Amino acid sequence: MKETVLKKFEEIYGSAEGVNVYFAPGRVNMIGEHTDYNGGHVFPCALTIGTYAAVKKRTDRKLRFYSMNFDSLGIIESSLDDLTPSDEAGWTNYPKGVMWAFARQGMKMDCGLDIVLNGNIPNGSGLSSSASLEVLTGYYLKDLYGFQVTNIDLAKIGQYSENNFNGMNCGIMDQFASAMGKKDNAIFLDTADLSYQYAPLVLEGAKIVVTNSNVKHSLVNSEYNVRRSECEKALAELQTVVKIAGLGDLSEEEFEEYKSAIKDEVCVRRAKHAVYENQRTIRAVEALKNNDLKLFGELMNASHVSLRDDYEVSCEEIDVLVEEAWKVEGVIGSRITGGGFGGCTVSIVKDEMVEQFKEKVGAAYQERVGKTADFYVVEIGDGPQKM
């Protein structure tokens, strides 16, 4: 990929001399969905797939972006004097948002950039191509301009830019997983205070298989922000009867005791998911420490049911993929992963059943919804790097 982006840079801009190449990974979340903006725990891991950038400083204030994933759009030009979101800017709103967020913190770029990007995360798959792009942008800005920021800072800046520049009220999980990834480890992150620990995710005799429904989602234009506001409403009503900072502060028993304070039945179900999913995540990490992969898988399955029924962020195609996965012998657990409304499922499948899993689930999906699913046996990789 390094050679590919360098070659394209030379082709587009005339010379690859003095160009630096960077990478930031996508992520898959094993369990702990829609808990990150509710003060709960998440358990994502960085992948070996992600986004690559070939970048070179300019002598003026011009910004030139080119993506090999959207090559029909050609070069998209902008300027450091025009860091404002717009429909015309398209995908470049993500890197521009990060540049804007850096400037808001007093870290201003003194010259523009020529950039070529190439990602191997399927677009709209729910594997965080946007967070990968945000962390990547922050990482090359840090390197090229000497900004004093940590990788955790990069995660915070990425989330801030997506919230405030792109209008997407995401939590910090995606950016944190990309910025802080560690090979063969998932990250057990408490989003209430950003305390975290790495947990080895070396699955003896099993593989992580991501299945892409090829139903593209655009969370900014979806129900995602609605879910967040429903949880905020539930939290505010709970806070009238119990002292908590976030839904993640409650155990299941405490939630059942106080839930009558929530007036709207829909908000009750949203809050229930946030509370129960947080506890599932804590138990799942404990199960992994005890080498209890069976329990880990059962908690993954329960997570999907909750996301489908209480949080209502699944869709017909995703449900079919999960239902068919559950039927296959050797599947330890399967669930929707990511923000929802399409995208991917994540499954843990015994080694000897991986090919049969692909065949059976793929055929059933084609038959039931008339679409083709794509399968990736994924590996867990490191965070951002200069190549």
Strand content: 15-25%
Which percent bin holds the helix content? Answer: 25-40%
Please report the number of helical segments.
Answer: 11
What is the CATH class of one domain?
Answer: Alpha Beta
Give, in spatial order, the strands making up the sheet with the most strands: 5-4-6-3-1-13
Largest sheet: 6 strands, mixed
Question: What is the mean pLDDT?
Answer: 93
Indicate the overall shape. globular
Q: Care to count the β-strands? A: 13
List SSEs in N-to-C order: HEEEEEHEHHHEEEHHHHHEEHEE
CATH fold-level assignment of one domain: Ribosomal Protein S5, domain 2
Rounded to the nearest angstrom, the radius of gyration is 21 Å
Q: Structural class, from secondary structure content?
A: alpha+beta
What are the key terms here?
four-stranded antiparallel sheet; alpha+beta; single chain; six-stranded mixed sheet; Ribosomal Protein S5, domain 2; globular; 21% strand; 387 residues; 13 strands
Structural description of this entry:
This protein has 387 residues and is α+β, with helices and mostly antiparallel strands. It has a domain at 2-200: Ribosomal Protein S5, domain 2 (2-Layer Sandwich). 40% of the residues lie in helices and 21% in strands. It has eleven helices and 13 strands. It has helices spanning 2-13, 93-104, 129-145, 151-164, 173-179, 224-238, 252-258, 265-289, 293-309, 316-327, 354-369; strands at 20-29, 41-42, 44-57, 62-67, 76-79, 113-119, 185-190, 195-200, 206-212, 331-337, 344-350, 374-378, 385-386. The strands form three sheets. It has a six-stranded mixed sheet with strand order 5-4-6-3-1-13, sandwiched between helices. Strands 10-11-9-12 form a four-stranded antiparallel sheet. A three-stranded antiparallel sheet has the order 2-7-8, with helices on one face. The longest helix is centred in the last third of the chain and has 25 residues, at 265-289. It is globular and about 60 Å long.
